[in-house]
Design brief:
The protein is an alpha/beta fold. The chain has nine helices and eleven strands. The protein is globular, with a radius of gyration of 22 Å.
Length: about 260
């Protein structure tokens, strides 16, 4: 079983996010880390490998320093990592990112592609489905449980009203939710292996990607304006002086809840 995990470098979730003058995320405003949602995908890949055998590759598209970030996947237990980086890919939107990842995946051998359900910076959740579309293979999204056997992947898919059981033949792209597992902590042996690991670096020419379909020039979306979120209004404290119930009812009527 050959598994590829798409892993993204993001800013530390505790960092204060800032925008540049042209309304892009300032990725120098905090410490870069492996997207926390992708850690669940790495963990699920390792568990499948432990059951069925095979190998796990972490694939990252990002700036040059993402090579160090993606080592986290190797320290957890991934067999190898590959970084796709090219100056023309800066400011790619979700469509351009998915296109480049799909071109890199075509160069890799895989039976299963795993992704986190979204990134912690943009949070769109669009890339896994777009990767599957570019590859022309099935997509299984928002998996809270994943079983692989007899050339098929079966997931329990999270919905607003419960879950669905969905299956597809391999190869397929599967995105996993946070509750699917508990990512392991890297052991000392894994950390040392990650430090020594040689990580291949590919550019657009290496994977046959057209630079005009990604990056700033190839972006299909534009951010026209941005404004900070308004601070949350202070809550209303109701003290029980004998009229608390009436005050609550009037408050709910005012908010059109009742």
């Amino acid at each position: 079983m050959k598994i590829v995990v798409c892993a993204k470098q993001v800013l530390d979730t505790t960092a204060e996010k800032r925008l540049t003058g042209d309304l892009h995320l300032d990725r120098g405003s905090g410490e870069p880390i492996l997207n926390p949602f992708d850690e669940y995908a790495v963990e699920e890949a390792l568990r499948i490998r432990e059951r069925l055998g095979g190998d796990v590759t972490a694939l990252c598209m990002g700036p040059g320093n993402a090579k160090e970030t993606v080592r986290k996947a190797i320290s957890m237990g991934a067999d190898r990592a590959v970084l796709v980086t090219d100056p023309t890919l800066a400011w790619s939107d979700t469509l351009g990112t998915a296109y480049v990842l799909s071109m890199a995946l075509k160069r890799l051998e895989f039976d299963l592609v795993l992704c986190g359900m979204q990134s912690t910076d943009a949070g769109t959740g669009q890339v896994p489905a777009a990767v599957a579309e570019f590859l022309g293979i099935p997509q299984l999204t928002f998996a809270s449980q994943l079983e692989v056997s007899d050339g098929r992947a079966t997931i329990r898919r999270v919905t607003d009203s419960g879950y669905q059981l969905v299956a597809a033949n391999l190869p397929a792209v599967v995105s996993v939710v946070k509750g699917i597992n508990e990512p392991r902590y890297p052991a000392l042996k894994g950390i040392m292996q990650a430090k020594r690991a040689e990580i291949p670096v590919w550019n657009c020419a290496d994977i046959g990607a057209d630079p005009a379909r990604a990056g700033r020039l190839g972006a299909a979306t534009r951010v026209l304006s941005a404004s900070p979120t308004e601070p949350r209004a202070p809550g209303q404290v109701i003290r029980d002086d004998g009229t608390a119930v009436q005050q609550i009812v009037e408050f709910l009527i005012q908010k059109k809840v009742l």
